[in-house]
Amino acid sequence: MDEVIEALKKWSNEGKQTVIAFVVSKKGSAMRPVGAKMAINEDSEITGSISGGCVENAVIVEALACMRSRQPKLLHYGVTDDTAWSVGLMCGGEIDVMLQPIYSSGEGDFDRIVVDKISALQEARLPFMLLVLLSGKKFGHTCILENRGGKIDPNAAAWVERSLFPKLEEMMRTESSQIIETAAGQIYVDVGKPSPRLVVIGGAHVSIAFVKMAKLLGYYTILIDPRKTFATQERFPEVDEMHADWPVEGLEKIQLNSGDYVLLASHDDKLDLPAAGAALKAGATYIGMLASRTTKVRRFKLLEEEGFPREQVEKIHAPVGMDIGARTPEEIALAMLAEITAHRYGKVE
Asked: CA 324 to CA 334: how far, in whole Å?
């Protein structure tokens, strides 16, 4: 939601009326998933998207009406509707879109305070859930549930039964935004989870393209390399964090954990092997090693000699990346990110 929240804050600071649109439900082959968002202002400017371009114009018109009425609205678009044909939703899917006008602080359920709170949680990289009532007298009512250490405060929302909190925590774990049924009515639950951290060991040439592409895919990027010639802001202007440390020290500094992705790309045993050991000990969700098959065999043997079980060492993806016939640094970066994406969504182990 980062770009959408950023736009809402900017426009509100400029005194413009704004609306946020959520895809709260989808069926069939709709282009965008549940949780897709778009921000709209009074000048019909938009950030984000809720379809493949099919219904954006129609939603902008409805959003402008919401600004005038100051009331939230739930919209439905599907191939069986005349409206769907007129706006071009031809992909065979159906979507429900919730429109929420952003009020001045204290004027309504979804106000500037909510936007600022979400922005602060995103900046602090803390997981949260935004709950929106889709039915009943309090239609459009919202609240934010913070998730700390995998647990949600059961007293955070009076209109959510405590029995639902295990389900909410599972939704947080699986990043699954969806509608749930409660005694208060239907509630759309939007999961706001921090971007996964992708740690790159070694500022080699391929790492430059890799970091650029990873940022486009929404990863939070960290570069660790003690070689000051390689780890420079000029070479990596997009990187979120840069640490001129030896790998073990750098990984301790960032508190590498089981949710992190690690790429070993220095081509130097003095950097890659200690980093591999630290990543294995931390239980990183993905470890990729940029190496030839010969180097892989040698390094795996060295890790086993250090005491790592063979089955653990073999979880390292090496040579890293899907086989797409990559040759250039950019193509190699694409192959590596393709494999990481497949791992993230359960397509490869």
From this structure: 9
CB 288 within 8 A of CB 340: yes
Residue 66 lies in a domain: yes
pLDDT digits (tens, 9 = 90+) for 242-273: 999 999 999 999 999 998 999 999 999 999 99
Q: Which DSSP string do the residues of 93-146 spell out, in sequence order? A: -EEEEEEEEEBSTTSSSSBHHHHHHHHHHHHTT--EEEEEE-SSTTTT-EEEEE
Task: Tell me how crowded residue 213 is: count the other CB atoms within 10 A of its CB.
Answer: 18
Q: Across 93-97, 139-143, 158-162, 236-240, which has the greatest mean pLDDT?
A: 236-240
Domain that holds residue 76: 1-102
Give dist(CA 244, CA 202) in Å, integer.
10
Instruction: Name the DSSP letter for residue 163.
Output: G
Residue 321 sits in a domain whose CATH number is: 3.40.50.720
**149 DSSP β-pair partners:** none
State residue 238 phi and psi, 5-degree precision.
Answer: -90, -15
Candidates 41, 47, 44; CA nearest to 13 is: 41
Question: Is the residue at 188 inside a domain?
Answer: yes
Residues 250 and 299 in one domain: yes
Of 39, 43, 11, nearest to 100 (Cα)? 39
Query: CA–CA separation, 303 vs 166, rounded Å?
Result: 39
Residues 208 and 337 in one domain: yes
- Alpha-carbon span 119 to 7, nearest angstrom: 11
Q: Phi and psi of 275, rounded to 5°?
A: -65, -40
Predicted pLDDT of residue 108: 60
Is 79 exposed, middle or buried (CB count within 10 Å of its CB: 0-12, 13-18, 19+)?
middle
Q: In this structure, is residue 97 part of a structural domain?
A: yes
Q: Are residues 83 and 22 in the same domain?
A: yes
Is residue 206 located within the same domain as residue 335? yes
**One domain for residues 184 and 321:** no
